[in-house]
Prior knowledge:
By secondary structure, this protein is mostly helical. The protein is elongated, with a radius of gyration of 26 Å. The protein has five helices and two strands. The protein starts with 8 loop residues before the first helix and ends with a strand. It has a two-stranded antiparallel sheet.
Amino acid sequence: MTVATFPTAHAARRIADTPVIEAIGVDAGTRTNHLVSPRLILAMLLVAAVSLVATSVRADQPLTLDPYTVRSGDTLWSIAAEVTDEGADVRETVATVREINELTHSTIQPGQVLLLPGG
């Protein structure tokens, strides 16, 4: 972290009147080389807002689990595809099923009982 020293009161006032975004810049005399640009701040705020909304949606909807007995010919993918909402990513469902059932790989056996996210 760099600490600035001000040789004159005029320089201190000029810096004090500088917008925060510009004051953070590497070279406050230009609009380039900023450590934090307005676009970056906007992008970070957008990501944070989306994360909050996604978290609150998940927190409001408890996950129900339904038992499923694996049959001959089933794959983790085919099972996950059956319970995945239309338009949703089956890969996310596969990852959820693996996490719920503490599977270290995607190999399943007929007769094995899996807990699947229900709706």
